[in-house]
Design a protein that fits this description.
The structure is a homotetramer of 472-residue chains. Chain A is an alpha+beta fold and 472 residues long. Chain A has 3 domains: 125 residues, Up-down Bundle (Butyryl-CoA Dehydrogenase, subunit A, domain 3), CATH 1.20.140; 133 residues, Aminopeptidase (3-Layer(aba) Sandwich); 146 residues, 3-Layer(aba) Sandwich (Aminopeptidase). In chain A, helix 7 packs antiparallel against helix 8, helix 9 crosses helix 10 and helix 9 packs across helix 11. Chains in contact: A-B, A-D, B-C, C-D. At the A-D interface, helix 5, helix 7, helix 8, helix 11 and helix 15 of A face helix 5, helix 7, helix 8, helix 11 and helix 15 of D.
Chain lengths: 472, 472, 472, 472
């Protein structure tokens, strides 16, 4: 019996519940399938190995193997972190491929001459290289909540791996398996509305990573008639969104996130909107890190909205610049920032005592600089210019990719940098990370392919005249 | 364009939204069907009559009549109260039956001799007595949200009728129509869970009339794995519950409502429960007042739970005594209350200065008496005895029915009075109205028919030995 | 235990099963609710009356009353025709309204003076006139398959009534009840496709009344991508269509029914069609005779098709003339038919020995005349002219309504007579009843209201120039 | 535009339609996604290669790649067999893995020393061995009907491969991909009833491989209240069953298939049955050959039936012996068959002229021997004994597996040989292949694991005493 506190978490997390859940409720089917009283204690490594081997050898047939997998999963879920780690280490280090088999297959490949022989030898080598542990992972998948269990397992692996690199092989195998099973072709896009299950909306509230959901009323507002929300689901894990995107239907480009999230703002009839603003996109499953869905989701949403609302003329984002303040700090550090004469003049005219560079250093460090109206006025042209510089010129170490991760995502998708918005996000996080700036990326449907190619093959970043003009 | 404030209400109502809603969103289909620009202004009585008559005569055929009804409904919904009232008065006073037709049909009945002639004449008289306005109400029903509109109309009528008895005929006609259409045979019972639509759960929070829902977490707790919730729906009004009941699955009789509603209490696996406690039943639609569903709902829920959870051995309520404090005040006023020797002795032993009757008068007036432990100790046996007296002997004015409305409901259903619980509801409302007492009514499946007959035909109230013993 | 033969019928009916069904399977819920072993034999009139009265008095409460109704229904369904008749006679003759109550209420109405008193007195009289049997019918409705049972009951009543007019009162009461409950506002239109349940398609095959379904392949063809089928359902009787319509998507007006039903004809992509042809509309429930849905169905289908297929420019029927041959026979009998000079000349030119009137008499009697090409050639202009005369001028006895029932239906809906098609239906039935002719009625959306009014209020029949021209 | 004949097939196939389908209807989504007019002609190998490479390089991004895959799929589906073959050969022979990459990775593996290095090197080698064509196959899967297209592709490959072994590599890659994607954990078991979509039942009729479905009435009978049918579906290919099983609910073991399929036989209420007979199990997708689902299906069905119908005490099959007559012929050929004295005596007593061995040879060759009652009487004990011998002793060449494929399937599942039924299948096929015999395999739930192990690890075939007794 679990107390509600475990289930609902304490006050701070209470709004949308914490991640802690009653084992019996959450993994009901695994518990049901594994109901056997005589299972040996799996936290003992010998018993663990015996159970894994019986499962892999399918003693007693397929159904028995499934029971054994359920028992392993159940034990794992009930384990505290230390025992989970021990379990995963056994799996990662002991159930690899067979060295002799591999050696034989390599020899076979060497000996092959005809094209056909080569193909067959390669296939055999590939088979020989399959680690035994893959079969155990597949066995878990035969459980009803198997896919969810494996996603949970990978989440644990990612967390443990930082300090336990020996889990690498297992994590890699699981990633490849999940990549295959969560193939984009199997995912279903669903519209999420205020009529969706409360349990699903609760998860949205918990997983939203860009602009925190403050209350159920905030959530309801994001699902009003001038809003849309879409998510990808896997057909075998319908209760868990993989990724979701929030859209506002507005007139003209939206420039300020707080306005969009204002629960008391006016409601627009959706057929009066001319612009769809993607203002939040969140991955919901840490266990699927490295398997990307966002590019497909955004394009399917555009297609769906165009069909549903033919009055929409423009598709754009309202995005944060999560790396801007950090980049600015580094630039200042290496003394790579200088002010233009016009900018300097403004500082003097406003009688600011501190030097512009000192002020910029404050911007780079905290969000508190904006309280002084003169400071804001003086900094505005400088920050807009530096932001344009950041977006159009800053690249990742040793590469042609945009330094800003959000920029990189949308540019890869074929969007262009359209507009930088002063005081676009005045929340604590927005001031801190992005100096209060937000940017619109524009998706022009007739250019997506070309812009994608520009960026992908040549690192060229397309931008509007107005943004490029900030650099002149 | 409506502001969000209108839609969501102010802070106090904000948790589950207010009843105010954007006309366009809420009655989307009525607005769609009625899209005609040349409709005359219906707030002008002449135009109103012309529109009603065109609708009743079905000028242009059935579909045109439906359009006209939609225009009337749309105008009505957009009206402020005064105009709504004017509209309803025209309908109630002018569109009755035809006096000549009735007179002719009465004459026909007088003249009829054979059984067959009599039957036919009666049928004709019934037809002649049908007011014309009934046809307009039926026309509204052809709209997709017609049933919901009519329920809204009746709600308005009930509100207006207190001061405008001339609306009586219309209200009566509408009640009969709704009674026929919301026949129990058409209703569907559905289980409501945390996976139900958030929009529906929001309504539950708004409509709960017995124990106020304080937050979404409170709501979630009422839908946990050791709780159940069921509601009746009409198939043509699926988004609106008509009535719903909340059930707790527990071990033994539940005696304290705050324990049931405690979000941090332990969770019970539902198959470990031996008792189902019905702790709240709320009608959701004021517009359906006088059309009873509760008796059917409670019995269908018992049948469903028995099937789903064969371990359940007992079905009982945990109910308030909403009339107890009021009854006690009256009894004191007419000096109908006296204390027994043993009871008096206890007061003295505890050294209470105030007289017992003064203390009882406090109980009848406010919920604040319970802060003093001695007072509680002294009052407990007195209040339990008086409560048993109230439940078993107090009758409604001039009748054989139990004075307490909740008691009357469950006794009519064939339950018996099982147990009175001291400090069963320590909320403000519970202390105020029920002196903190709650009562369990027990549904013994093998006795329901007999107990129903006992009460229905002879006014006999069945009770357990322990409750009857309180009176000895 | 029933044999399959009962269930599936013999060879002739076998394709779509017969109406006979295993009692236990078909009315499973009624059987379940009524499971009591001590029910007395209801075929004994005394027991029947006792059971009816116990049910009406709700002895033991609502749920007991429902059980009693279930027992009555179960017994009724198991009865052979003679016992069913006896049951219905008791109900029709004994459970009427109370004469004294009526007399009192009539007196009350006489005594009423104020408008309010009159309204109340009328209401009371209406209540007094309600026969007791209505409550029993309502009690049946509380059963899950109650609505279906009542429709079955009315079917029986209609069949029995021809020879037993004393069943009239019961049949009338039931009709009014069903009319209220099957109000158009409660019905749901659904699209029926080859993906619909086989059990539903089987019913379509059985109920199709215009052009008999010959095989499952024929049925599949009627649901192909260039066909549509829509039906109305009551939400409490989802497994039974009330009425359905079959639509062909074509280029230009369809003029020949056999072409439409040809399983080997070419398939058209639905967005290439410019015309929707309604070629069959069938009522499925004899028990709902006199409660009309067709006019609403046809207009909802038009609305739905326009939305789904914007390329559609024309909505028309391809309809039989079920009364034409019969009308022609009568006209010949009363010597009301004469040939025009041009027509007579053609007969001579083709060297036909028989006189034109003799040939017409053959046409009116059987479908075999069309084998001789010369006869066809000579008769064509005569029959087309007479058909136009029949459609535009023949009226029902003593009225302004079109004599042809199908014409009356579509004209009331606001359609016009568009085109008469020679050899439009060469099936046995088509040749026999309609002399092989078929007619297109055209639904012009911008004229429907006006044409409806023309016909409804003045009996004016609108027709195309080409049809009117046939009479010149 | 396709003619219906293409769609529905000719008379012989007509009952459940042929496999030929209108391209546009069947692959609607592929056609929609690929709507581009400027696609080059892919039947030209140069264009084909250009298109494949553009797709693999994801020129223009993910969405463009999907379009290109759709164009390839569309072209492929429209191709005649010869062009399809050419397409597949290019794919199979040209888009393998990179030889240099493999060589490098093999060298890397040789050089690896630590366990971690070895694991990483193995992983890299596995990646290097992945043929490029796998990515194209994955790209097809991003299409909505992608999974179905790939299953179709594999079907073609299997057909072509017999004469074109060079397609082996592609067929193997596709098989592995499908094996991963059609993992048992992703499949959903559904119950199929007479309320299932007609389009699905039509497929059942077409795919049933054991006892041919003769008519829709036959099909309806197999879905009656004393029958059950279950199928596995992939969530991304819901309209296509992968495998299905037909079950009869009976009293006692069913011994005769014609009785089960008799449409006029008595119907049993399902809760009166004590035995579930699995009388047909059919794989529906040739493109999934080699990926087994049957063992899981049969066990899930047992679990489901036990829960739904607790009265069921026995789970068994009624199975053909598809290899018996062929085995008998071979045994006779190698003179491995001799009669026992008692058997010989019976032949003489019945005055049969032909020698027993000649008669057996007839049995082995055709199903016509059974017309003579004396022959039957004489052969019965001999054939039963030989059949027991066949089931218990005949092994596949060089192995421990049962020679009969159906026996092998059920024995692997943990069933035992329970009973051999004389004249169990008197159809042409049954007489021909199985000498009219059928066998019941019994699934004893408490022995399944042990029997599976017996057979799997030691080749031991469990059988009832009565079957073993036939050999004494």
């Amino acid at each position: 019996m679990a107390t509600k506190q475990e289930v609902n978490g304490n006050g701070k997390e209470g709004l949308f519940g914490s991640a802690l859940q009653n084992l019996r409720s959450a993994w009901r089917e695994i518990v049901r399938v594994s109901r056997k009283s005589d299972t040996p204690d799996i936290s003992n490594p010998e018993n663990l190995r015996a159970q894994i081997e019986a499962c892999l050898e399918k003693k007693g047939g397929d159904v028995s193997a499934r029971h054994r997998a359920a028992e392993l999963a159940r034990a794992y879920l009930a384990f505290p972190p230390a025992k989970r780690l021990a379990f995963l280490r056994v799996l990662s280090s002991e159930y690899g491929a067979d060295a002799d088999l591999i050696a034989g297959a390599v020899a076979g490949l060497d000996a092959a001459t005809s094209a056909e022989e080569v193909e067959t030898a390669r296939y055999r080598l590939r088979q020989a290289l399959e680690p035994a542990r893959l079969n155990l992972l597949r066995e878990f998948n035969t459980l009803q909540s198997g896919p969810r269990f494996l996603v949970q397992l990978r989440k644990d692996l990612i967390d443990f791996k930082k300090e336990h690199p020996e889990l690498g092989p297992l994590e890699r195998d699981l990633r490849e398996l999940l990549r295959s099973w969560f193939d984009i072709g199997f995912l279903e896009m669903q519209s999420i509305t205020w009529n969706s299950p409360a349990s699903l909306l609760e998860k949205l509230g918990r997983y939203e990573a860009v602009h925190r959901v403050r209350s159920w009323l905030d959530l309801k507002n994001r699902l009003d008639i001038d809003r849309r929300c879409f998510a990808f689901f896997h057909p075998c894990m319908r209760e868990e969104p993989l990724i979701f995107i929030e859209v506002a239907l507005v007139k003209g480009l939206a420039v300020q996130i707080q306005e969009l999230l204002d629960e008391k703002a006016e409601v627009l009839e959706s057929d009066e909107a001319d612009t769809a603003i993607f203002y939040s996109i969140s991955n919901a499953q840490k266990g699927l890190v490295g398997i990307s869905f966002g590019n497909f989701l955004i394009k399917q949403v555009v297609a769906k909205l165009r069909q549903e609302l033919p009055n929409l003329k423009r598709f754009a984002t309202l995005s944060p610049l999560p790396g801007f303040a950090r980049w600015l700090a580094r630039e200042l550090e290496v003394e790579n920032v200088s002010l233009r004469p016009g900018e300097l003049k403004k500082f003097k005219a406003l009688g600011l005592e501190e030097s512009p560079l000192q002020l910029l250093a404050q911007v780079a460090q905290s969000g508190k600089w904006a309280r002084d109206a003169s400071v804001c006025e003086a900094l505005k042209p400088v920050l807009l210019r530096l932001c344009a510089d950041y977006l159009l010129n800053a690249k990742r170490k040793g590469g042609a990719k945009a330094a800003d991760p959000v920029a990189h995502f949308h540019l890869t998708n074929g969007a262009r940098v359209e507009q930088i918005n002063w005081m676009g996000d005045t929340s604590g996080k927005g001031m801190q990370e992005s100096a209060g700036l937000m940017v619109n990326y524009l998706y022009r449907l007739d250019r997506i392919d070309r812009f994608h190619e520009d960026y992908q093959s040549r690192g060229k970043i397309n931008a509007s005249k107005s943004v490029k003009g900030l650099l002149d």
